[in-house]
Design a protein that fits this description.
With about 160 residues, the protein is mostly beta strands. About 15% of the residues lie in helices and about 45% in strands. The protein has 3 helices and 11 strands; from the N terminus they run αββββαβαββββββ. The strands form 2 sheets. A 7-stranded antiparallel beta sheet has the order 2-1-5-10-11-4-3. A 4-stranded antiparallel beta sheet has the order 6-7-8-9, with no helix packed on it. The protein is globular, with a radius of gyration of 15 Å. InterPro entries: Flavin_Rdtase-like_dom, NADH-dep_flavin_reductase, Split_barrel_FMN-bd. It comes from Petrachloros mirabilis ULC683. Pfam families: Flavin_Reduct. Keywords: Oxidoreductase.
Amino acid sequence: MLDEKAKKALLLKIPHPLNICGVSHDGVINGFTLSWMTQASFKPPLIVIGVRQDSRSHALLKASQQFAVSFLEKGQQDLAKTFFQPQEKVGDKLGTVDYTLGEATGCPILTDALGYVECQVQGSLEKGDHSVFLAEVIAAGVYREGEPLWLADTKWQYGG
């Protein structure tokens, strides 16, 4: 029998990076706070992300089969919080945040991030309330050095 209290307590101990995932399809772009991500392989370089199935970003990602992850720095909690809600393109900004479009994917990459990876989806699994996307890193860039932002650096909880 599943002990719900124990399950939640232990699953909340899984470390979660806080990054911004940019998606694009047919001229529509969006970005969302990504907290479920891990590396899955060295050769080829593969990562896995979890995306809420009922989100617009999920639909864009599923249609395009590509995305970009902008790595946030410790102290950029406000930026992570901004992307809890969908961010529309306004002029040359994503909401109020400067970005550029990735050369490999055309997905938005935040210019104030530590750096980014651009990814091509290799497979997915749609179970539960999130889909899991396995993707190959096809481009990457470092803008500056810094400590990454982790969910544990905030007062927020996501998981369990």
